[in-house]
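Quick illustration, no need to memorize.
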Amino acid sequence: MRVLVVNAGELAHLSHGDLSEPLKGQEMSDKELNVYEKGKGLLIGDGKVLKIADSDELISEFCPSWDGSKEKSDGISVVNARGNAIIPGFVDSHTHLIWSGDRSNEMALRQSGMSYSEISEIGGGITKTVRSTRECTLDELINIGSTNANKALMLGTTTLEAKSGYGLNLESEIAILRAYKVVNGISSCNVYSTWLGAHDFPDEFKDNKKEYIRLICEEMIPQVAEQELAVFCDVFCEKGYYSVDDSRKILETAKKYKLIPRLHADEFVYSGASELAQEIGAISADHLMAINEDGINALSKSNTIATLLPGTTFFLNKNCYANGRKLIDKNIDVALATDFNPGTCTMRSLSNIMFLAIQNCGLTLEESFLGVTYNAAKALDKKDSLGLIKNGYKADMIFWDIQELDEIPYWFDSYSTKIRKVMKDGRIL
């Protein structure tokens, strides 16, 4: 059955301009170009937007007998938005959705002055989560993943990327990715999987890192590709973890197996990971708090999306937020994501992330909107189907009880009162 949405408030379609290139200047910040005024409606069929027009026009054409109150009329399901603002469903392009265990004690360790790497050296950090996650059954992993995906959906995230990386052996990494495949099938939130077996070195290979990298390249990646368990391959390219040379070897191997490369890049110190992202053709370089001019220049010559994760900087109580303003002024596409994970950001809300990006990364409201919608869709290789309200695009939308779109980051923690409906594939959840 087709769906007719009528009586929308402000409708952020975000589809003005040549979307093959970064939106900049007036194209990005002019509200009139990217937002329809109140009163628009949408015809939806097969989970996609078919037509956008004035509500009265759509009612007259498709359900002239609608009396303003019925949920169905003339064979069409009618959704009366009642003046709610509508935006594309959020796309979260960097999450660690499945993990087990508790690392809340690390907050006190950080307050005492310990760094991320120092906590890891005493048995905390990623390896602590790995020990707990390895003990989970497949059913437990599925339950964790579906619970987290559904909570993100309540906050308006209709599509997300989800990484492995808390198994760090063949069996556990495969189990996490299999769990994602199930979660994608049972949750209304779409999940695109990333293999991140190069997240850290497991305890059993701390003294033989070359052997673990061999295992990654000769066993893990081939198995992941053969079983079609992931779309992307990611590497934590960071001092004390995977070097630029290590990362290059892993990502070149992944490309041979048709996995799309992406990178944890220049998070704590500048390593040259941003330049590697350009060299390797990574779809996304994420974090970038420590990027320098060489890294910025490299990204400006590439099609790599710069994905900022200000929730992590906030959670770690650091003041070195990524300079989104500088990146955008260099015509680099900037996306925003949560980095939801057990150790450095337990935040699921992308409206929170918008708020932090505006406050600390130099983004405008309009830029932050693109960061959690269309540019995030680009970072998932889905720019032709997600992140806009446009004919032919998936009908993924959030209905907000607000008068102006400016209110979304303003009400950054008030989703329960301000998000009225979430639509996924043309269906109200």
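Residues 209-226 form the longest helix (18 residues).
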